[in-house]
Amino acid sequence: MTNAADRRQALLAEYENIKSRQLNLDLTRGKPATAQLDLSNALDGILNGDYRCADGTDARNYGGGLGIPEARQFAADYLETHPSQVMVGGNSSLQIMYQYVANAMLNGLQGAESAWQNEAKGSERIKFLCPAPGYDRHFSICEALNIEMIPVRMNEQGPNMDEVEQLLSQDPLIKGIWCVPKYANPNGVVYADEVVDRFARLGTIAGANFRIMWDNAYAEHHLSDEPPQLANLLELSDKYGTLDNAIVIGSTSKITFAGAGMAFVASSEANIKQFAEYLGISTIGPDKVNQLRHVRFLKDMTGLRALMQEHRKILQPKFELVLKHLREGLSGKTINNKALGSWTEPAGGYFILFDTQPGLAGRVVELCAAAGVKLTPAGSTWPYKKDPANTNIRLAPSFPSLKEIDEAMQVFVLCVELATLEASESAGN
């Protein structure tokens, strides 16, 4: 037998031994660990019977569709804009994004005649640009609303803006683009200043009522002492007269309680007014008590950043352990003169993106699952779950313990090498 065949047999024996241990490990989703949630336990009881907001209103009552004043100020500071351009809602930024796109699709952003669906004739469909690899839940919104998705390649600077601008200039049915501009899900890219500047000018070439869905979910989720800065889309859009096109979203979902935080959105005052009126049909106001307790707990951006340093103490060792296994298990190894894989080393966010040799991501995920390690399904980082090269695997190390990560990554590294050797042998190499 060849050396490669010997190595494959040795890996198979190790793999079968791992399967016999009946592991149950999960690296699928970027959830905060219990220790991170514990950092915000002081939220409970912090109001101590004082429900008065800054303007004297009672947070327990109806009303306040735009959010309480102090929460709007907090969100404005977070999103680097003005309180008049901000609305604070419930706990879910994903819900805000779905509601905004559904409103634009069905009801229109400037009256019923402006509804996106009215522009699609016959078999035509409204379309969204989807930088890929990207966030699977963004893509799910498009699928739920029958919006056609057009993948746009990501690079180290952000989306390929030449491609974005060309597509927009040619097709007025493209009504939006999804973005995670800082520590992008899943590859950790921070959009370059030039890219953000070009985004701010897209409204000058796009069709009517085009929207940039700027999901800045990880704005303060740093893993380095000198985090990269992201240019201010709202400020640049105001400069170019395209503020209506920018929809900037954030939340405290991975800062305080993931299921009980507060989410916020910023745009032009006209956009915020229209969106609040739309939401007012289905609700008489958000959970203002939760907003008030968040502001009392976090206080301001200084307080938030101090809390995020505590998150970093929990998260950074987990990311470092994943990277340690990748480096020690795969760096320098080749099969057919090609590296076994490549991966990102993000400065923040919640994910590491691993790329196998072409065509092997699905097999690696399958092998890991059979050995008791759950990974996000291959293809999830692409529209319609179709990764054209079948290489992307998203690793989410935030929730498991260090011990669980250590065990899971031993399995992962083994499965990458085993899948690559299998493919090489099948190809007759």
TrEMBL record:
Q: Which Pfam families match?
A: Asp_aminotransf (PF12897)
Q: Which organism is it from?
A: Pseudohongiella spirulinae
The keyword Transferase is assigned to this record: yes
Annotated PANTHER family: AMINOTRANSFERASE, PUTATIVE-RELATED (PTHR43799), ASPARTATE AMINOTRANSFERASE (PTHR43799:SF1)
Keyword check for Membrane, yes or no: no
What protein name applies here? Aminotransferase
One of the record's GO molecular function terms: L-aspartate:2-oxoglutarate aminotransferase activity
Keyword list, A-Z: Aminotransferase, Transferase
The family database entries (Gene3D superfamilies) matched by this protein are listed as: Aspartate Aminotransferase, domain 1, Type I PLP-dependent aspartate aminotransferase-like (Major domain)
